[in-house]
């Protein structure tokens, strides 16, 4: 297993544990303010952390799925697969006083990278 490091996100508002070799894509090209994007130097895989706007018409697990599928649709994904959706313990969140629930979704999307055909 690769060595890992704690990586601050969104100016230190929270952090993620990433492989030491993960490359911050914002050092290579512009990244929107609501995203943190990292890529692996060997596997051609990317990790995108995106802050999304509340959608009041969906709640709970359905909201996590809605956002994941919406992002895939906007990006023109050929395939969108949700692997798991789990509630997050509010006690472990830095923003615990600001939300009533939080969900973590793990999944895969098959999307063409910049300047490539799908």
Automatic annotation (TrEMBL):
InterPro entries per record: Mog1, Mog1/PsbP_a/b/a-sand
Domain of life, source organism: Eukaryota
Alphabetical list of Gene3D superfamilies matching this protein: Mog1/PsbP, alpha/beta/alpha sandwich
SUPFAM superfamilies according to UniProt: Mog1p/PsbP-like (SSF55724)
UniProt entry keywords in alphabetical sequence: Protein transport, Transport
Keyword flag Transport: yes
One Gene Ontology biological process: heart contraction
GO CC field: nucleus
Similarity annotation: Belongs to the MOG1 family.
Name this protein carries in UniProt: RAN guanine nucleotide release factor
Source organism of the structure: Papio anubis
Gene: RANGRF
